[in-house]
Protein 1
Amino acid sequence: MAQGANKINQIDLGKWAVIDIETTGVDPNYDEIIDVGYLQFDGTKLVRTYESLVFSERPMSQFIQKLTGIQASQIKKAPAWREISQNVQELYGHHLLAHNADFEASFLDSTFRPLDAHRESFENSEQYVDTLYLLGLLAPWFSSLRLENFITEWKIAESEQHRGLADSVDLLKVMLVGAWHLKQDRLRSITLMTLLEQNKLANSWMGKFLQMDFEQLEEIASGLKEYDGWDLEEACERARESFLIYEEQTFSLGQSESTHTSVKQGESENRFQHHFSHEFSGENIKSIFRHTEAMQERFSGYQYRESQEVLSLRVGQALKNGVHALVQAPTGTGKTLGYLLPASLYALNEGEQVLVATGTKTLQEQAMSKDVPQLYRLLELSPKDFPIVSLVGSQNHLCEMLFRSSEDNSDEVFTVSSDESSSGKNIDLFSGGEILAQDDPAFGEAFTNVFFEWIFFLNTQSPRRPFLRADLPYIYKQKLEAFDKREREVAVDFRSCTGHKCPFKGDCTYLQGLRKAKEAKVIVGNHSLMFQWPRSFPRPSSIIIDEAHKIEQEATRAYGYEVSSDDLKQLQKNLNTRQGIGSLFYLLAQTEESQGASSGVIRSIQDKVDLAASMLRDHLAPTLELVESYFKRRPRYTDLYWNEAPMMSAKHRGLDQVSQAILNHLESIKNIVFDLLESTISYLSRWEVKDFEDDKMVTAYGRFETFVSSLQDIYSALDMALLSPDDHACSMAFHERYGVNIQCSPVDVGKVLHDGLLENSHSVLFTSATLGNANGDKGVRGIEWATGYTYLKSEKRFKSGFFLPAVYDYKDKTRVFLCDDTPSLHDSDFVPEVLGKINDLIHRLG
């Protein structure tokens, strides 16, 4: 199986170990280690395996005992840590590999500290290597980097054992399988190593491991073969299917013809004895659901449900007659297929596009992976003849143009001073040869660059499932400030997307999705997308809104205004670094009639920007301090959660000194932003992106348009908050970690929804399992108002909502437990006290 190892370039991993611990809890100041295990290596040679339980006087919760399988009685008989620690100290001077290594480090640092005291320097002390970063590069399609996901997905074990040595062994197996698979694709392997080299990570332990050849990987694996008989070749073969599934997936933006086929390769298209008509009529819908024999041919275990048929008929009526409707379809109705069938028949016969808006992206993906294939099978259609595509909003995509132009966190590539020629200068981002370790402050920025470069490269590979923002590992955003910041910076803004003129249009997941959606018969989206529809083609006029009970919250967000302290800090930074405005300078210099003709204009704008940056700095810091002081004086202040209060405004009388000072600063910031907006917005109309042929010009225009859009958003939010009109609810919130957030939301969401959605749509059907009570005589007025249904003319709506009977016997099977003795939510004992009583209740209920 070895692929011709290169003996000249053998990689020396030095001394290293894979280690894992189990503890009584997560607090190293209180909890204790109860199990430890490790694999110790010298280069590629396994020199020792070690495991032991550890004595502890701390009580072991039932959760920990069940999770680890370690009984409290076993711990009482185990050796004390002072005996075990000598074995752990053998790893001093090693690279210690652990999954989410911060946890191991927090418990083990005290064990190694005495050894540090006898060293003149820490150069040879232990160094932790967090395999979260390694596995994220080996399998970037895993949005959750829990070790168990890798273990089960790659068929290494049925589950994570949560034992020290066993988890250490499984972690190493995962690393070897992932590295082996990477090596199988020479282009990918070389690309990743190039990225690590450019970002000074190639000589880190992680970088060295990824550079190893097949023979060295086998040498490491041979230690495991002697230990538990594990074979790398066999393991890679078992995991092969998982890698192939990822590489062949192309769903998410618009399904490819290979993803949701109704007929498997080699099968006859006429494999069903009974065939259904594609006629769009109530009688045909009834015949489909009632033909039990034909349905069971397609779906084993199918049972006719009257409520599913009734739902389909009401959807069909609404679409055919161009009216809006409300339908409550309780859990168990078969709701998704119930509305997909009439929607598809309508689209087939009428040639009209239908939009299905689910509550979340998760439900959207579920519909595409489960319900859409069922529909294709039911009607014996193929995606080629009847395309149904999934489309997510622009903010869910990653813009490579924004990433490329922000790699150095400035617009220096576009900036020209008034005394320079019109050609910008390029910056070498990767100069220097020092090595970055994971404890280096610069590691976060370097790893962020590598990861985003890596997924943009993988998005150019085909076939594949494109990477979206939702696919990015959330834990990286928690652990790396640079990653969190970059993820927000490179989100696509549909308002400033340069479309087919973008130099990265060929690999852009957003544009690919739009192209497929334009040709689709049915588009499966979500609430957010419905409200922020792409401007490149009109939103379908026939819409089915699932999970409609959530529509008020989403509409409030879509039609509201919001600005945060992060937005203002980012603006200040952009002004200081010329990010955004530097693109304007570049455009002016490149389109000037004669060399230097734009120098005066550039100098004038630059002076305004410098002044704005200085003034913003003078107001922003004291504003944030005042807001923090304001909230910390309020009752029930908490440093754990958001603190919120009604927005103070000039129309309120008798404001205290702090409130008035906050308003004065915000008014000044608003005026600063307005002056900037007034000085720059007119330049947007000077050019049209379609007129640019040069990629740099297109990129610069996109960056400048994004900058102006951010100014508009900030100004509108501040203006609305300071006005605080009666038809909007405005509030200010403060969080110790996240800073300040100001929001203004429309009070009459229903009216806004009616005017912005229902009024200009052919038919909108709202459906959910919970629109009111079981028979619709309570709670309905609220949902009719929230959806805008109340404001409809009689000819555009059914007289009342439609409430299908519940499939389950909620009335006789439901038990309600009322409690009036819970502690305050802010009480430190809230969780254990409430959960303790709930646990007892669950046991009593059986």
Protein 2
Amino acid sequence: MTIHSNPLGKNLAIQFKIIENVFEGMDRFKSELILRNNSDQIMHNNWSIYFNFLRMILPESVGEGYQIHHINGDFFCLEPKIDTKPLLPNSEIAIPFVSNNWAIKAIDMPVGFYIVYRDDHKNELEAQSIDNLNCAPFTNLAQVVRNENDHLPVPTANSRFEDYKNLTLLDKKDLPPIIPTPVFLQKEEGKFQIKPSFQIGYAPHLKAEAEYLSEMLEPYLGSYLPIVEGNIGEITLDTGHIEIKNTINKSGSGAYSLHINTNGIAIIGTEAAGTFYGIQSLNMLLKNVDNTLELPNLEIKDIAKFKYRGMHLDVGRNFHKKETINKLIDMMALYKLNKFHFHLTDDEGWRIEIKGLPELTEIGGRRGHTYDEKNCLLPSYGSGHNPNDPNSSGNGFYSGEDFVELLRYAHSRHIEVIPAIDFPGHARAAVRAMEVRYERYRDLGDLAAANEYLLTDWEDASDYESVQMWRRNVVNMGLESTYHFIEKVVDEVMDLYKKANVKLSAIHIGGDEVPGGVWTKSPACERLKAKEPKLKTIQDLFDYFIKRVNHILEIRNMLTAGWEEIALAHKEGKIKPNLGLLEHKLMPYVWNTIWGGGGEEVAYDLANNGFKVVLANATSLYFDFAYDKDPEEAGYYWGGYINTEQTYKFLPFDLYQSAGKDVFGNLIDKDNKYKNALKLTKEGEKNILGLQGQLWSETIRNSERIDYLLFPRMIALAEKAWAEDPLWMEIEEPIRRQNTYNTAWNQFANQIGQIELPRLDGFLNGIAYRIPMPGAKIENGLLFANIEFPGLTIRYTIDGSEPTENDLPYKMPVLGDSKIIKLKAFTTTNRSSRTTILNLENDHESIYGNRVWEERFKQIEMKKNMNS
């Protein structure tokens, strides 16, 4: 057996370069992979390089001498052709190709590269990671314009300054000390100090809350305050009636009062959850000064606007450990969120142990190099080749014991965990795991066991591909074994909740993005249609599936939750509420609300027709979206960009007023565009259960990225889900409305910058929230700078060096006559933002300036006309 001496993976480097979007006038882009051999060995033609990429590559476009195959999902393989010249030592080759849609950010580059060599007998050698990866710099507009409709410029120092121009630093003592904003807060004379000699008195049913409060105070006091049952002690916890006047918040959820005076602290909730929220408000008031806890005397009376105040996390695409989930639960609790939508399964992973079906986690809980997926799933989202690597975000699951612990942890913080088990689409991990189970029992000769939980009709010739480029990722709804599988999973999940002594009230079944073409050539589905003559269309089959799953949950006293698709029907070219399913009490989460996309009315249409709706609007509440269009600002952007203000602007009961710009940055004339749009009725308003933020994990491979993408946006989510409607919402006169809004946003931005971000610096050993880049401009020879959240410290240099915590803070305009000025924003722990650069001699920002931008669109229009 001959083995060529080839460079190791660690001696290879790959650069991804975006060459041009709107390639040949179409929604396509040209890019290239530059493969470099940094070794002293020849790279022969006996290799395959595998990688993950979120765009479909056109195979005929690949550069001469090479080929790229789409395997499944986001998984691709690059190989040389037989007659391609070997890659010599210390040399490189550029391999161009064309892909669908566009790529305008560094996050768009392929990831998870690894190489596999073969010997002369075509036997594979061990896979090796290629970790030396980078994205080429963005230097021209062709790299950042998506198509002829894209009029959204890349942010610059000047544009950021303009964005922040209405923000001013307010006196901290005048800012509300608590977010979400309480309905009633009245300060009183004097202060109160918590001392180590105090004790906590609690009503008998509030022992857990008393223990939580004692633990919360321990880091400040150095010891735990003793807890005593009864209405005694300097701090008391109780439940009872709370009268809150002059409020429209009537959800009945989480009401509490917090009273601090010279005699002590009294917290009362209408139920235990309310008392807990009072404790969280106390948490926000705490100061630690010379080992003494000093609080202002005040009275707070508060109640939530919505009963449902949720946060979603996807662990199917990339896994996150139990400790990370606990941290998220604590962050949710601080801001009084109460529903954790735990997305446990998807095409790329199954993350919860199911007793009796070990294949779900043996196969679905691991990803690595494989051709038959008999031991693990294919790599996705950069998870790499090793299915046993504990540091790979593709590998991992929660044991039954882990899940029970998570449930108890959330329950102790009054957060309900809503598990998401996705069907019928987004189910490839389950589909493949049950195929492996089938093959194992078949080989043992036990066909009854093999077919017991099978999700695949082996004779199905349906041809389909999901939005995420997956084939064979939908369970077959014509098989009885599919429903037997769902019953098994539901019963085992219920058992885990029973062990945790926590109620399971709903399961989220997904139900979204079922690809066209599914079930069309399935003999199993045809047999079902023959038995059920009313089943004629794919919509009928989908409805049948939803009803069957709903029945499984309903007889177990659970609600069926899902994305909006579970409550919609496609009929005569229109998408409308599926009134035939109304009696089944489905709980749809409305997400596909892109401005100008046609789905803006869906939430109100469903609510007006009687469905209980959770608002999960992508354009305001998808926190995996990038904060802005900067090529180095990571995140998805298919639905636009979402900064904290975009979430703060969100108006649940007046959605159309939340509209600003469409996906491509074009200003929306909301008063005209939505003049005749469907309005929410008073009855429909009662059916809006609440709000939920979404964090999908395709681009999130560590806990720091969770912090970065969630904060400070999750703070704005909490404000919208809990606090009263803002005053500016009711003002019709445009100028007065805008002025009132500017005042409110300035206050909220100051609360974040001066109170919340410093709080997060010390919360749970520090939260790695996003620090915004400063805005800056030169005017009349002076440097002016500002920031999105007043209170953060801006530091600058004039010698071209990177600003550090030791450099001068910006406090007022200064001379700006240096050639290069650099600025950064700093936190209380001296973490810093990315660098804002003003290069007065060679202004790199000029490539994003208006004149060049306009010229680029002329070129696009010319190419478009030529091609047509």
Protein 3
Amino acid sequence: LLDTRDEKSRQAFSNTHPGLLAGLAALSRKTRDNSALADRIRHKYRMKNTTGYSLNALVDFEDPYDIIEHLMIGSEGTLGFISEITFRTVPEFPCKASSLMIFSDIENACKAVECLAKMPVRAVELIDRAGLRSVETEKGIPEYIKGLHEKAAALLVETAADDSGQLEDNILKILRSISHLQSENQISFTSVAAEYELLWKIRKGLFPSVGAMRKSGTTVIIEDVAFPLPSLARATLDLQGILAQYGYDEAVIFGHALEGNLHFVFTQDFSTSGEVERYKGLMDSVANLVVDKYDGSLKAEHGTGRNMAPYVELEWGKEAYELMKEIKKLFDPGNILNPGVILNTDSLVHLRDLKPVYPGDEITDKCIECGFCESACVSADLTLSPRQRIAVHRELMELRRTGREPHIAAALTKAWQYYGDETCATDGLCAMSCPVKIDTGKLVKKLREEETGGKTALADWIAGNMGLVTAAARTSLTAIDAIRSLTGKTAMGMAAGALRYITAGKIPAWNEHMPRGASNLWRKGSQAAGASKIVKDSEDKSTAGNDPAVRGKEFSSTAGNRIHERPKVVYFPSCINRSMGVSHQQADKRQLTLVLESLIIKAGYEVIYPDKVDSLCCGMAFSSKGYAAAGKRKSDELEKALLEASNMGEYPVVCDMSPCLFTMRENIKSGLRLYEPVEFILDCLLGGLEIVQSDTPITIFPVCSLKKMGLDGRFEELARLCSSEVTVADTNCCGFAGDRGFTFPELNRHGLRELRSQIPEGTRHGYSTSRTCETGLSLHSGITYSSIVYLVDGVSSPARK
């Protein structure tokens, strides 16, 4: 073990590895003494170059420890293992602007690159016509991209500065530098974050987008070369010619133009010898083009790996290649560390042991396992990430199709239950990160549906008796809360934990933030059959909504009956909030349904509740568990009830839970105006409210469904209207996933493992838009979370007329 920052570690290493240190020092001297070889190495590293080992370490440094540090970079585990590393970072400027410049062809685009290289640009990305075509239908892409001719090419340019004035100066200099070049579009820059982030998101998605267009069962391959910048235009045209010669018509070329660094992406079928031979021809031709014609780099920034191992000596020459072999022998004389990678004597190693990509399911077959999804997945590093789920599922499907290795298929099937299914939150955030919008959660839901195998009797009974079920839930939660009040939270926690242990996890996990049962919304006889309940303003504004006895006059009326001129809104309280009341820690002891009703009335609206509301459900609780038919039944029932209550869509509809509202928007297609709480407050209620901003520090957590609806920014906007000190704490998905926080609490714990550290000291109040998520957020943050509706209600009063 060597810590190059620690003098004691260095000294200990010199005692245990004197031969390695002496050997590196001698190798460095020998290389520097060979002026022709040393000059060759320096020349090669004037371009981006990662082919083979980092030979520049031998000419740039004399201290063996410095040499070790720099040889280890890019060694791909063939020299040792890096357990910890310190990076030197580049500045992240606060002001940025980007431009998508279209030129008539690659040559003119590359002429622009030569001009831009002298300008204050941070990045210049080249995209050929095929690359533009692969993303031209993406949201936000200018419409004119579709009409570009076949030779057109684009440059995506970014400039950045410390302030807006310097940014404007940068933009003017850049535009002047290329003003003599003919472009296909009016070149301009945008400094609007949402606009330039979209451009860069598209650029980053080029690789997966090509992969998504491939035929099922084929592999997507990305290669990475570099040319001297003055040769970039000619080299790009030559590369396009080689790809066409071998029939890779779908190939896309893009890259970091300032460094002469090009990536090209294509799809490959390895299932026949003819296809493998075609691939070999392509790689041989590319290697000859890069090395012989342009003296470029076969690998500019990617790892070398087995695919390039046959060509390392071709690029570097025999003398430099022998140096690399000596380096490997010094570090790994037994050739046990990742053997065959980087250096390999087999000239056909890149054609052996090719990884098959089996078809798995139409939902995920476009996946190329790029891993963009992993940062958004709550179960990544706990069980499986989305791409791991897809890879395992593909392998399992292939084993079942072929019938081979049944013992492995059985083991995978058993392991899948927990790793693939039970710990998947099915939140869909992976689709937001995926360039081709693959939602692995949909695959898991589909598999759950297949697993039910038509055994839906219990789900059907629950769907038909939702009123009874929610009543039972209220009673159960109230009973549990009563026991907790009698025994105290410590004894309750111990008893609940013991029960869960004894039943092998069949009893849901209890935590101190579990709420008591909600009170029933409806007093006996308050609704006439076939009618909606309408609640209008109370004379006493201070108590409206706090006490059911003064919640306002109730009318048995059809939704269309005009009572007076006040605007109306249909409020659908989710079954979760009809069941769950408040926790012991919540300061406001009113349940959410009463608070939202109070806020709506305060803003000058009449509240309409759908008929037989206690039996209604959006269907998410059923469909997420694989009971799609029961979920659709509940969704259809809700849609019918909301249409009646809203006078066939005349009045807006609000639901108090973001996840439920998201489900409603996915399923209900009859034109109803469906609002989530944040959106409804901002768009409909603010005009009738006066907000007095609080100086109490708060934190907010945007739940998954809020992000998927694109409302996370509006959530922050609303929070900042209400408080002068807002922290957005975000760890993607919280992992509560409906009831998973009770049944698999480790998922919630893992998802929120970094939450507490994001909340500034002194913050005591947290807000979100999902009752179940708020339970987990409270448990793992050290503060109490509740709906943002409580905050708005607390800082608002009716607007003065």
